[in-house]
Design a protein that fits this description.
The complex is a heterodimer of chains A (182) and B (432).
Chain A: E1 13-19, H1 25-44, E2 45-50, E3 62-68, E4 71-73, H2 74-85, E5 87-93, H3 94-99, H4 111-123, E6 126-131, E7 141-143, H5 150-163
Parallel strand pairs in A: 1-2, 1-3, 3-5, 5-7
Antiparallel strand pairs in A: 4-6
Chain B: E1 8-12, E2 22-29, E3 32-40, H1 47-51, H2 59-63, H3 71-86, H4 92-123, H5 136-157, E4 166-167, E5 170-171, H6 177-202, E6 213-218, E7 228-231, E8 236-237, H7 242-248, E9 250-253, E10 256-259, E11 266-267, H8 270-277, H9 283-293, H10 303-325, E12 341-349, E13 352-360, E14 366-372, H11 374-395, H12 400-414, H13 418-421
Parallel strand pairs in B: 6-11
Antiparallel strand pairs in B: 1-2, 2-3, 4-5, 6-7, 7-8, 9-10, 12-13, 13-14
Helix pairs in contact in B: 4-5, 4-10, 5-6, 6-10, 8-10, 9-10, 11-12
The chains are: A alpha/beta (182), B alpha+beta (432).
């Protein structure tokens, strides 16, 4: 792993944030983390694809893709594979992505319950079982929690800042926001 | 031969800056809009089926996971329903803490919607990430307000998303006096910024008037957990009677299930609350935003944003008053009597009325569950307005790309929540 480069580097971490079958609770935590990290992240992160924050999204050539949610259907699988092809590192975010639950509660439905929902599954190309992300593509790191654990997420982010040579923030730019927000 | 330019489909795939996944599709034939759809594009997670047969006491933390940003509303509505089924009467302190938890949720959630999703439209940017240095002060203020709401919700609920402390019968712990003082300070510090944003959302050039009925939970302190359900023109009903009114008119429209109230289409959310209940806002709020209150009742969908901006100020004022006057003390969680029962839970979620109906068997397990969520209630009107907006812009010869942008801005003003909607609406997927 490379050492962090020093302040003033123009290199930004090019990231994407993708959501699949879930409540998007970790997306909300990400947005809440911005209460105190917005200005730092703006200098260090290229938010190339974050649908909750922008319309002009580009998923090509990402350093890191953060994937929230379980994989429950054919289209989820296809889109997840596209994400994997376009990123160097992929991080599973939150309980649904890491374990498949609670989005996959139907995995433990009774035969009668499954019988009832099966026509719906077929109609909408949903799979018989809901799976965690690692069942479909290679995962480089996981941030568990429902919603995701904030400290673990920040630690993963720091790890990739270092790996991709993204410098620390210039001290004079540290204007900050309300402390302890998220 | 007809003019091909007047025969088209205007679509917006992967609608951005909303909660969840959705697409818009409007079909035009010979210059006339013939169909308008808001396509909910989320994979269903079968929450209603999942709670069947579960113990009712386990339901609140399960249904909290329906939605990240509305989780507190699902938690408190389902707790209300379970308490109804098991005959639990919450204490006065519990009711106050629930009011505070909702105020914190509203401040955080409205701030996200207004400042991060809508504000870029109002200042000509795609994203809050594109704001330049001259707009940094605005960003600081936005995050200060949002953080204050987060802190309030975290203090009361233990966490702002999927709060662990609220239970059937009370809270696992009461806030400590030092925390209360700190949160009062943060709320007061954010108030001026919240007021300035009211001016921003009042000054918009976006307008779209559409007459309808408005339905909301109405009470005398503009809280979100008590009161009766009232319509703008058709009186009030007890919350226990709500589904009776809805059962009369469940109309399939386009691809989605929609609702009418007492036989008529209606809208829920901040605009409905402000139209129906503005007199109950905190006195300090009424004093400082008084110049805008005359706009309500309003039929302008974009005034939903203004109403949310005012609710943020009200959330600050009402919370500060509660925090300064209520002395919180440790109290035991009331024990539920496990029995066969029927419970109705109703709260005002940030996006409108959220309704839970649960029936339990002798062992306390769920044998019937029904939910009515805000985005489902607004679905019929959203699609109707979408079609009318496109027709208006076509008649004014607006370019397709500009029409597309206006479609997005309109739907964003409704603040729809797809994570909630997908569990209870029929879903149409558009492939390719």
């Amino acid at each position: 792993m490379k050492s962090p480069v020093q302040a003033g580097s123009a290199r930004k971490l090019r990231i994407g944030w993708f959501t699949f079958t879930c409540s998007e609770d970790s997306s909300i935590v990400l947005v809440e983390l911005m209460n105190r990290h917005y200005f730092e992240w703006k200098d260090r992160i290229d938010f190339a694809h974050v649908r909750i924050l922008k319309s002009n999204n580009d998923m090509k050539n990402l350093d890191v893709a953060f994937v929230e949610g379980a994989i429950s259907g054919k289209r989820d699988e296809e889109n997840l594979k596209k994400v994997r092809e376009n990123c160097k590192r992929l991080v599973a975010i939150g309980a649904c992505a890491v374990t498949g639950l609670p989005a996959g509660q139907r995995n433990s439905f009774s035969p009668d319950q499954m019988e009832k929902i099966r026509p719906f599954l077929k109609l909408h190309r949903l799979n018989e079982k809901v799976e965690p992300v690692k069942k479909c593509v290679h995962v480089d790191a996981e941030v568990p929690g429902c919603p995701m654990d904030e400290k673990m997420f920040l630690a993963v982010l720091d790890r990739y800042f270092a790996e991709f040579g993204v410098g620390t923030r210039n001290a004079k730019q540290e204007t900050g926001n309300a402390p302890g927000a998220a | 031969m007809h003019n091909v330019d007047l025969d088209m489909t205007i679509g917006v795939e992967n609608l951005s800056k909303i909660e969840g996944h959705a697409e818009l599709e409007v079909k035009v034939n010979r210059g006339e809009v013939i169909d308008a759809k808001l396509v909910i594009d989320e994979n269903k997670r079968f929450f209603v089926d999942s709670v069947m047969g579960k113990h009712a006491l386990a339901v609140p933390q399960t249904v909290s996971r329906i939605c990240g940003t509305c989780s507190v509303a699902h938690l408190l509505a389902s707790i209300d329903a379970v308490e109804g089924a098991f005959g639990v009467e919450p204490s006065g302190q519990t009711i106050n803490m629930r009011k505070l938890l909702m105020h914190g949720t509203y401040i955080r959630d409205h701030a996200m919607h207004l400042y991060l999703f809508c504000l870029p439209d109002y200042v000509g940017k795609d994203s809050v990430l594109d704001f330049d240095e001259s707009q940094h002060e605005l960003i600081h203020k936005a995050f200060d307000v949002k953080a204050a709401g987060n802190r309030l919700a975290t203090m009361i609920g233990g966490r702002a998303v999927h709060s662990p402390l609220p239970l059937v019968g009370g809270f696992l712990k009461a806030p400590q006096q030092e925390e209360v003082k700190a949160v009062i300070g943060e709320l007061k510090a954010a108030r001026q910024a919240a007021l300035e944003f009211v001016d921003v959302f009042a000054a918009t050039e976006y307008k779209f008037k559409s007459e309808t009925d408005f339905v909301s939970l109405t009470n005398d302190d503009y809280d979100y957990v008590s009161g009766d359900i009232c319509g703008t023109d058709n009186g009030c009903i007890l919350k226990t009677a709500f589904d009776h009114y809805l059962e009369h008119m469940v109309i399939p429209y386009s691809q989605a299930r929609g609702f009418t109230y007492d036989g008529r289409p209606y809208m829920v959310g901040a605009l409905a609350r402000m139209n129906d209940n503005k007199e109950s806002l905190a006195p300090e709020t009424k004093k400082d935003v008084g110049k805008y209150l005359g706009r309500f009742p309003s039929f302008d969908v974009f005034d939903n944003n203004l109403a949310q901006a005012i609710e943020i100020v009200h959330g600050i004022d009402a919370s500060v008053k509660l925090l300064e006057t209520v002395e919180f003390k440790a109290e035991p969680v009331k024990k539920a009597e496990i029995k066969k029962g029927l419970g109705i839970g109703v709260v005002e979620a940030p996006r409108g009325i959220l309704y839970y109906k649960l029936m339990t068997d002798d062992a306390g397990k769920v044998e019937f569950a029904n939910l009515v969520i805000p985005t489902a209630q607004n679905q019929v009107k959203m699609e109707k307005d979408l079609g009318a907006l496109v027709q208006e812009k076509l008649d004014a010869r607006m370019k397709k790309d500009d029409i597309r942008r206006h479609m997005e801005v309109l739907i964003r003003a409704y603040d729809p929540c797809m994570s909630c909607a997908t569990n209870f609406l029929k879903v149409k997927w558009t492939e390719g």
